[in-house]
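Hi W., the iron/sulfur cluster complex you wanted:
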Amino acid sequence: IAKAEQGVSWHRGSCRLCGVGCRVELGVKDGVPMGLRGISDSRTNFGFVCMKGMHFWKCMRHPDRLTMPLYREKKSDAFKEISWEQALDIAANRFGTAFRQGGGEAVAYYGSGQALTEETYLFQKIMRGGLQSNNVEGNPRLCMASAVGGYLSSFGADEPIGGYSDLEKAHCFFIVGSNTAEAHPVLFRRIMRRKLDNRETVKVINVDPRVSQTSRIADMHLQFKPGTDLALLNAMAHVIVEEKLYDEEFVKTYATFRKGKNEKTTFDDFKAKLADYTPEKAAKMCGDTFSPDQIRTAARWFAGSKGTVSLWTMGLNQRKRGVWANNLMHNLHILTGQLLKDGADSLSLTGQPNACGGVREGGGLCHILPGHRLVVKEKLRRQVENSWGVPEGRIPAKPGLHTMAMFSAVNEGKIKAIWINCTSPVQSLPNCNLYNKGMERDDVFIVCTDIFHTLTTQKANLVLPTAFHFEKTGVYGCTERRSQLTRKAIDPPGEAKPEVWIVREWASKLAAKLGDPVIAQCVKPFEGLEEGYELPKAIWDEYTQKLTAHRDNDLRGATYEVLGQMADGVQWPAPTREHALTGGTVKKFVKGIDPMADSESKDDLPYQFYGPAHPDRTLWIWLRDQADPEEVPDAEYPFYLSTGRIIDHWHTMSMTGRIPELLRANPYAYVEINPDDAKKLGIGPGDMVEIKSRRGVNILPAKVYQGPVEGMVFVYWHDQHKDRMINKVTKDAIDPGSKEPEFKICAVQVKRVSGP
Ligand code: SF4
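Structure:
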């Protein structure tokens, strides 16, 4: 090993894939990547990486990498290579023309939770400050907008109160709608370790309509009819109230009850509402797949443990009432006081590596400005405009179009120029047959920045090759409010460039084309800076020093200099250098600790709330009813379809599908079907099965096993083959609050079409 490592230098950074934020180091020899390993002094992953994390570096020198700008006038033309000068001229001309003709509403940016914070921040600055458009969106709308809505409406501030360090102190894990074992494998390892070391005293409850690798370590698996988990969560609250398992003092001191944002209610009202959710009634609603006593036991374990951590992802978020589901989860924590103390947290897991840092915090959604500011608040818009030095009123007061509305506007030809960065909506939007149509229009100009061709670059006019991870410098922010720096370690191949360079150069040309000094003002602070380090650092400094001080996500202490010293990065709030050098803040609302001396958290409460929560300084317990999915099975479409993730692949497989080890492990999607359902339909293992909804059809091989609950089939969504791309089938219903689509549930027909 020592010999093989001779001449290899190791460069620290974060994993490029999921939201766990594992710390890794890349080995480089003579400018060539040699391998990747976990960092053992990281408290995030303790040296471990999962299969995906271990292999992603192989994308760096993959022969399919895009290395030159590609252009075509019409979508039916072939791409031809052009120079950067030509590419940026074309992008500036087309966006400039669209803006002149239709203003800010005719242009859009659609980004990603995989983009670096500096990239998202700069894109949205040019869109808002320059092109006067709030049409700034990102794929986190598809996976965690409901979690944002849940945190805001329950706690008054986005993102979790605690973090991963609670896992080692928890005595009960409540895992709902998350196959943590496959979607967040390294975090699951920590949960499993805790369970295996404390078999008798640590309880794991899994709530999921499907048996997964996660449910295999559970003491109790509540497998239920899809879409009925709101009833189950209310029933647990019922037991907690009925058996007086709640923390009376905590509730009295910190909680209020809500029917609506401006509609307070009482504990008695809440109790009366819960009468509809006795364990007996809820067990029936959930499909009679478990007993009322199991609900009682789950509630007792949850409330009675010394510390309960809840974890969830898409099972709760990707729902017609995803925000309500999140509220009901938080309700249980507020009621029982399983919050603000070690080993207790209501922890929504993040899907992507920078959905929190770049998109939620950096202003990457149509209603959010940097620093968790809401677009609709005039005072907050003024703060941003003043810090950018652009005229007041430059940022429109109206939020832009959320993801589904944005691609509807593309369908209708209302958006004339759209920039899609590092994501593939052609595959990842629900009911994608419908939303892909607009992207084929010749009057809609599409720019894609990416490292490989995807189904979406195939619809673009201009494809710009970008630097990959470790080929550029920047920050990711993971699930637990932690910002982590990855520094450039190798050059990108060919003429691929970091996005921050691309946006700066494009914006300069746009300013010249439109003769607009305000656009020029937006990029002025970054002119002439070297792109490998100086440029992203200047962007990070502007964002953190000017725009993060007003709320709890204070990142002023987390400079590149500090982040570069920290094995794990820094958890916000981190208002000063000294504080950031301790690692930041583990619990953002903490009993008796107020690390931010000038915070607004000066009151008589025994818990110091770090930063403003709700204006009344309370946590809100919501009265929410069970709400059915938008589409439920009927005589014509008698099965539920649910979609999800597997351990070997990442999103649209544009990366993991090019890594032979991962592709061999799981080469194509299949449909999981319960043996009883399979028997009724005459389906055997390996048979080809048609899955048809009102929107589209797939044909996939069958995997018959006791996984999905009876009446439900399951397909993973990564596969981009035209017959197996499951988002042709999924439904585009959205949560009215978060605008997140209900990928998780729709109704389908299931039919055997041929043998293996
Ligand atoms: Fe990367 Fe997530 Fe795997 Fe960690 S768990 S190595 S962050 S993919």
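The two ends are 45 Å apart (CA to CA).

W.
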